[in-house]
Amino acid sequence: MADPPLTDEALADLAAAVADGVPVDWVSATGTLGPDERQLLDGLKLIADVTSEWDGGADRRLDHWGPLRIIEPIGCGTFGDVYRAWDTRLDREVALKILRRHESNGDSTTVIEEGRLLARVRHPNVVTVYGAERINGRVGVWMELVHGRTLEDELRERGAFELDRVVLTAVELGDALAAVHRAGLLHRDIKAHNVMRDSDGRLLLTDFGGGELLDSGETAAAVGTPLYAAPELIAGRPATRQSDIYSLGVLLYRLATARYPVEGRTLEEIRAAHAEGGADGRAASLRARCPTMPDAVVKAIERAIAPSPAGRYASAEDLCAAFSALAEQSGILAAPRTVHVKARPGRGHLALIAAAALLIAAGIGVAALWPGARSPSIAVLPLENLGSDPDSGDFADGLTDELIRELTTIHGLEVRSRTSSSAFRTEPGSLRDTGHQLHSDFLLVGSVLRSEGRIRINTQLVRVSDDATIWAQKFDRDIKDILAIQDEISRSIVGELRLKLGPQPRRYDIDIATYERYLRARSLSDRKDRDSLRTAIAFYREVAASEPRFAPAYAGLADAYADYEFWGVNYDDTYSQIRAAASTALELDPLLPEAHAAMGLVHARDREWGAAETAFRRSIEINTNLSRTHAAYAFWTLYQQGKLTQALDALQVALKLDPLSLDLRRRIAYVQLSTGQYQAAIDNCRYVLKADPTFPLVRLVLARALLFAGDRAEALRILEEMLPNRAPELGYALATVGRRAEAEALAVAAAGVPLTEAVIFAGLKDPDRTLAALERAAAIGDPKLGGTLTFPELAFLRDDPRFAAFARRIGVTLP
User: Fold this and answer.
1) From CA 643, how far away is CA 504, in angstroms rounded?
2) How far apart are alpha carbons 125 and 147 in whole angstroms?
């Protein structure tokens, strides 16, 4: 429904305001016009512009304001007029807002102080304020000049926003408002007209001319834009953090519906609408206007616009956190992004402009930024297998994995791991939804058919933001050309996105049958269950025997053995296999990142922590896109040293590359247990179980988290259902509830598995037997020993000097 047109009475009020020099919000007024009234309002606006731009009655229009040279007027707001200006001192273009005379004649000291406070706010979603002064009787604030469009412009062109855009806007602007409040300021005029989307897609909170110091205790002289104003402001009470939050809530409501929660054509009508609503307000139901909107989002927006300040979010940080949680639950972590062209300072701008022109010609958004801007991202969806051969599915999966591996070598491109993209194998849904869930700007989709010595591959590169296919290619070749096809696809994407290939992996002249077996091994090793890993190891060995110079097979073998080790096989056997395979891979190809990561695993098992960190960092330096490397570094090196915060940071990097990985969620929960974040661990475990109720080991982590969160009954129920395989967790839980005899029996059954014994003895609060078991674990080189020392189960030993000495000896920092 469109906004109601202005009545004759309202137009008369506007004319009176112009005559009296009272500020008018022309943007909002224009937005309510019908076509027949626009000409009249343009005339009123011209009169106001002429009277406001003359400086003190002088015989010329305003062309300077102190050191700023006025170029042209660019807008009018509630509290002042905005100009494009040139700062002659710093040689840069700025936006200058000059308050109208009756505003400038007020407490200019406060306005200037506010401007200077804003100049200290540094936030990507807050326009940068450079300064504020009073010159020739007029107060001005000058700031970053934003080239873009307002959210109101977008609303009027495209209508109500999609759900994900509303939620992401709440996250960005909530964080921005929190930064303003932390600086000791209020905004007082948050509305769609005062939020701009810059040319790089960034949202910016602007127009601080109506700002006010926090907790000033003064009644606002104006209420900003009445349709966005909180009821208490309409009633004449002072502005607060909660009134800013209300305005942001109205903005979100408007983005979702293209309407306002409380509507009226004049301030009096709006005041009456609020008053008639009583304690409950008279906001129109968001649910009625958006019947398909999720309940959680409806409640979040309605909380922001609660009639009573006490019913709203306590702070902008709380609002931001609430919508961030909604974004994560919905799989919306980042808005669709643009490609950023990077240049080195001092190199000039011609090459930058030329590169930008090429990207624009390709239909890709561009932002000219210095190094550090975010990169475009891509996900490769599982290639559809069109073959009937029983093994062709593994071949297609392995080929998908290899394409991903090829793309990870492209500079400036974030590549999502196959673990996440494989979630869309059977029910991909719309490509736009899939891209949003994978947090990817582009998707590579296609199919593969292997038949009678030939291979047919169809591929398309799709831009997620508009479902546009920007490149497509068909390949019908001899299967021996498969490596060349992969390389051609990778180079085509580089060309389309105008990116740059990094150091290319070594090319091998490998028998195609052997290569097919390698692809199957890659596919199987990703499954991580005991049987698949055992088969993958056998395949890798066959590949290495057939092609002894093929380094990726040895790196894959080391990685598969490391995962196989997690199932409790003999550590001596797996350690020797990991070392031999990693050493061979590194010798054959010193630039293979997986080879360095494999050596990191070897050093970690030797507790050579410095060498382990060096190896993993070298792997990441060669290729930063490998999620498995970040995860292995976090879990086997940082976590095992007790560097819990660093481990969580590295796991979050891995999760960004592999956003739907259940294994990463489980590992994050594992580390969160050691940091005491029990509820966060519970949430992560339940996320995994909702996606896959049979996912390995996650119920054990959940049981531990529940136990330490105080829910012993539920923890025991889960653990007893899993008997007899999980003796350590169950033994500890039984001991803590007084069932000591059963715990002792489990300890006897676990003889020879020292870490299992140690956890059960910890439950029995027996320090001597716990420490003795830990010593036995160290003697056999159990790679999980370091992480175990950080377990909350062993917290009772933290004051025992023997425990502290043991931790120091193996290089572990205790929590």
Assistant:
1) 33
2) 14
The rounded distance, in Å, linking the Cα atoms of 731 and 582 is 37
SS3 23: coil
Per the DSSP assignment, residues forming a β-bridge with 475 are 457
According to DSSP, residue 128 is labeled P
Give the residue among 171, 107, 535 at the shortest CA–CA distance from 320. 171
Among all chains, which residue has been given the structure tokens 């008369």? 12
DSSP track, 716-763: HHHHHHTTTS-HHHHHHHHHHTT-HHHHHHHHHHTTT-HHHHHHHHHH
pTM for the complete prediction?
A: 0.52
**In angstroms, what is the C-alpha Rg of the chain?**
32
pLDDT at residue 215, rounded to an integer: 47
* Higher-scoring residue by pLDDT: 209, 142: 142
Largest CA distance in the chain: 100
* Strand ranges in 599-687 using DSSP code E only, listed in sequence order: none
- Whether 684 has a pLDDT exceeding 50, the answer reads yes
Crossing angle (nearest 10°) for helices 482-497 and 392-407? 40
Average pLDDT, the chain: 79
pLDDT, residue 11, reads: 60
Tell me the C-alpha distance between 234 and 220, whole Å: 10
Q: Distances in Å between the alpha carbon of 650 and those of 135, 628, 663?
A: 52, 11, 14
Dihedral angle sign, alpha carbons of residues 695, 700, 701, 702? positive
- For residue 489, which of 460, 449, 523 has the smallest C-alpha distance? 460
pLDDT-based confidence at residue 16 (cuts at 50, 70, 90): low
Percent of the chain with pLDDT over 90: 32
Omega of the bond prior to 590 within 30 degrees of 0, cis?
Answer: no
Does residue 735 contact residue 764 with C-beta atoms inside 8 Å?
Answer: yes
Q: How many CA atoms lie within 13 A of 648 on its CB side?
A: 14
Q: How confident is the model at residue 216 (pLDDT cuts 50, 70, 90)?
A: very low
281-284's contacts with Cβ under 8 Å and 24+ in sequence apart are: 281/231, 281/305, 281/306, 281/307, 283/253, 283/307, 284/259
Asked whether the beta carbons of 121 and 180 are under 8 A apart, the reply is: yes
698 vs 181, 523, 665, 686, 777, CA distance in Å? 41, 22, 9, 9, 23
Question: Are the C-beta atoms of residues 134 and 104 closer than 8 Å to each other?
Answer: yes
* CA proximity to 319, closest of 300, 335, 332, 302: 300
Under a CB-based contact definition with an 8 Å cutoff, are residues 227 and 270 in contact?
Answer: yes
Cα 461 from chain centre: 23
Here the contacts of 801-809 (C-beta below 8 Å, separation 24 or greater) are 802/767, 802/771, 803/767, 803/771, 806/771, 806/774, 806/775, 806/778, 807/642
3-state SS, residue 455: strand
More confident residue, 675 or 131: 675
Return the minimum-mean-pLDDT range out of 216-230, 564-578, 599-613, 797-811.
216-230
Residue 569 CB partners (closer than 8 Å, separation 6+): none
pLDDT at 162 over 60: yes
Q: What is the pLDDT of residues 451-485, one digit of tens each?
A: 778 888 888 888 888 788 888 888 888 887 777 77
Q: Are 783 and 571 in contact (CB under 8 A)?
A: yes
- Residue 506 has which token pair? 């070594």
Retrieve residue 382's tokens: 């599982």
Give the number of other CB atoms < 10 A from CB of residue 810. 16
> With pLDDT > 70 as the criterion, what percentage of the chain qualifies?
76
> Distance (Å, rounded) from C-alpha 708 to C-alpha 689?
19
Concatenate the DSSP letters of all residues of 529-564 into one string.
Answer: SHHHHHHHHHHHHHHHHH-TT-HHHHHHHHHHHHHH
Question: What value does the mean pLDDT take over residues 389-397?
Answer: 72
